[in-house]
Design a protein that fits this description.
The structure holds two protein chains of two kinds.
Chain A (H helix, E strand, L loop, with lengths): L1 E10 L2 E11 L4 E5 L6 H9 L4 E8 L2 E2 L5 H7 L1 E4 L11 H8 L3 H5 L1 H11 L1 H5 L10 H13 L5 E5 L7 H18 L2 E6 L2 H7 L2 E6 L2 E7 H6 L1 H6 L4
Chain B lengths: L7 E2 L4 H5 L16 H15 L5 H41 L6 H17 L3 H37 L2 H4 L7 H22 L14 E7 L4 E6 H23 L1 H11 L1 H6 L4 H23 L9 H16 L4 H18 L8 H15 L13
Antiparallel strand pairs in B: 1-2, 2-3
Helix pairs in contact in B: 3-8, 3-11, 3-12, 3-13, 4-5, 4-7, 4-11, 4-12, 5-11, 8-9, 8-11, 12-13, 12-14, 13-14
The chains are: A alpha/beta, B mainly alpha.
């Protein structure tokens, strides 16, 4: 579904990604793990078109994504849930979801999506008319995910959904993501620093260090890899 | 208090009576209709109430009358200032661009209304009573297109997502561009329209409704008809725009783009497009405000300079980036300007605005009606 081929990117003169190659198959739960500053967020921003690559290619369902304008990429079915939530604070919770449903597909399936969202995140139904900026951090993260789901995406890209949350809230978010993936069969690409949890649920994992993919493999391969066990799982 | 019958008053023989109407500073400088009647009415009051009434009573009722007159004038001009402020605040709110050329788009709106009224035949079709307001509304779509064009050719090159990546470099390019644009519009206007002040003449501008006489015939307040209609249109335009911003998909997407352009892009919102529309709406709304002013005041291509200051004061007063706040800010500016004439000479109207402005910026930097500014 998403094919990233030898992708290099950076900010101005500072290169961040070096020839990253990565594949996500339809229906898969893929995880990218790695330390701070490894380029995980940059990778996502390049897929969304906020950062321009210097080399390489990105294909989505066989289509050259780099030829598609950034704002048009959401309409192809890519939902990017950015790091730090980035909800629209002055809009209400419901209006945030409506903006999520800005895509044609999202508008068509608005009612069913909203129903599903409200079953997954009941708090968003309760607080539908509240300003999104008034929500707690965990609720804002739920809203950010729900806003992405409202677009009826084919691919859900989650950038560190547990960042800045209390452990309990982070666990809750994590469980929700897994259950959404299992119940809807949605393709998920997750960037996470909580390596153990991420690899536990992922079908496939990539380890990104200093802008390079240093390790990749299936769930079992990575879990049994000595380097992963030592560096990330503390075993 | 009783409200007297509303009756029509015509401009009196002002020149004779001006000398004795020194207390009449409350009336609007550009629209002096009403001064004459008021002196005349005053004379009538004095006769009616007889010479028995004490000087103090007369002084008090004079002050009350002037106060009410200034209040009315302030609300009416304030509504139009409010409309113009809304236009400016949309641009700032969505694009985070300080548009120095905003007053000059207002000037263009005035000239569009002027030429639409006279040359394009609005006068012939709608007459001189309705015509000026139709012409003012026509300025909206015309300047909207001009704004879209200017954003497409110039402003879009230095604003939006392109510049947000380079935020550390500051907004110098935008500032210099809009400042340059202001100079081009002013001098281009001078070249095209000439320096002779013009105005749209409408009978309503020199007609007033009289409220009163009330309080034993001592108080009578005049409400300029032209200004009242203009204020009414201004309020309707603001309300319509607020509805668009709050209810429609387009309005919500503009607010989303204002809140967080990057996240808006992730939603599939074309932020450059949003900025272009916001710029178009912003200048169009202010142009309608200019068009409404054009039938009560004379103007020339430099008129924007006088008003851009008033607009900025109103927008900052109301709280940057808030549409309803900007309207209330503009309304406040109108009130302060008119009320100040009760105590200060006419020439110091704008000084009063800035004194109040400074106090509010010192005591409530987020604006009268704003919440604390978001750090975007």
């Amino acid at each position: 579904m998403l094919d990233i081929e030898r992708l290099s990117a950076g900010y101005g003169m500072v290169p961040v990604l070096h020839e990253v190659t990565l594949r996500v198959k339809p229906g898969e739960f893929a995880a990218i793990v790695g330390p701070n500053g490894a380029g995980k967020t940059t990778l996502f921003k390049t897929v969304s078109g906020i950062v321009r690559p210097t080399a390489g290619s990105i294909r989505f369902e066989g289509r050259d994504l780099l030829a598609v304008a950034p704002a048009a990429r959401a309409h192809l079915g890519i939902a990017h849930i950015p790091e730090g939530r980035q909800i629209f604070p002055s809009l209400t919770v419901l209006e945030n979801l409506q903006m999520g449903a800005y895509t044609e597909a999202g508008r068509r399936a608005w009612k069913e999506n909203l129903e599903k969202i409200h079953t997954w995140f009941p708090v968003l139904a309760e607080r539908a008319k509240a300003r999104a900026g008034a929500l707690s951090g965990g609720q804002q993260q739920m809203l950010a995910i729900a806003r992405g789901l409202a677009s009826s995406p084919k691919l859900l890209m989650l950038d560190e959904p547990s960042m800045g949350l209390a452990p309990v809230a982070a666990d809750e978010i994590f469980e929700r993501i897994v259950s959404i993936h299992e119940s809807s069969g949605l393709t998920v690409l997750l960037v996470e620093q909580r390596v153990a949890e991420a690899l536990h649920f992922a079908d496939r994992g990539y380890v990104l260090e200093a802008g390079r993919v240093v390790l990749e493999g299936s769930h079992d391969e990575l879990k049994s890899n000595d380097r992963i066990r030592q560096a990330y799982l503390g075993m | 208090m009783m409200l007297g019958d509303w009756r029509r008053c015509w401009k009196g023989k002002r020149s004779d009576e001006r000398a004795q109407s020194t207390y009449l500073t409350a009336s609007l400088s550009p629209r002096e209709g009403g001064e004459g009647e008021r002196s005349k009415a005053r004379a009538a009051h004095l006769l009616r109430s007889g010479e028995k009434a004490g000087d103090e009573v007369i002084a008090v009722s004079q002050f009350v009358e002037n106060f009410l007159q200034a209040l009315v004038a302030g609300l009416l001009t304030g509504a139009i200032y409010g409309l113009m402020c809304v236009g400016l605040s949309v641009i700032f709110g969505v694009m985070r661009v300080i548009n120095f050329a905003h007053g000059d788009f207002m000037m263009l709106g005035m000239y569009v209304a002027y030429y639409a009224f006279g040359v394009l035949g609005i006068h012939a079709v709608f007459g001189s009573t309705l015509g000026p307001y139709v012409a003012a509304l026509i300025a909206g779509p015309v300047i909207f297109l001009a704004g879209i064009l200017v954003h497409w050719l110039l402003i879009g090159k230095v604003t939006g997502m392109r510049s947000s990546a380079l935020r550390s470099e500051g907004h110098y390019a935008q500032l210099i561009l809009t400042l340059g644009l202001a100079l081009i519009l002013q001098n281009g206007g001078l070249y095209l329209f000439g320096s002779t002040p013009v105005s749209i003449s409408t009978p309503l501008a020199s007609n007033a409704w009289a409220l009163g006489p009330m309080y034993r015939d001592r108080i009578e307040v005049f409400v300029n008809q032209g200004q009242t209609v203009a204020a009414f249109i201004a309020v309707v335009v603001v309300l319509a725009f607020v509805m668009v911003m709050n209810r429609s998909r387009l309005g919500k997407s503009l607010r989303a783009a204002a809140d967080n352009p990057e996240a808006a892009t992730y939603m599939g919102i074309d932020v450059t497009q949003s900025h272009r529309l916001a710029f178009g709406f912003g200048v169009a709304i202010t142009a309608i405000g200019g068009g409404l002013l054009a039938s009560g005041t004379s103007f020339q291509p430099y008129v924007g300079l006088e008003y851009v200051i008033v607009m900025y004061a109103g927008v900052v007063l109301g709280g940057l980036g808030s549409v309803s706040g900007a309207f209330l800010g503009g309304l406040t500016i109108g009130l302060v300007q008119q009320m100040s004439t009760l105590f200060l000479p006419n020439q110091l109207q704008n000084t009063a605005i800035f004194v109040v402005f400074l106090f509010i910026v010192l005591l409530r930097p987020q604006g009268l009606f704003g919440t604390a500014l978001r750090g975007t």
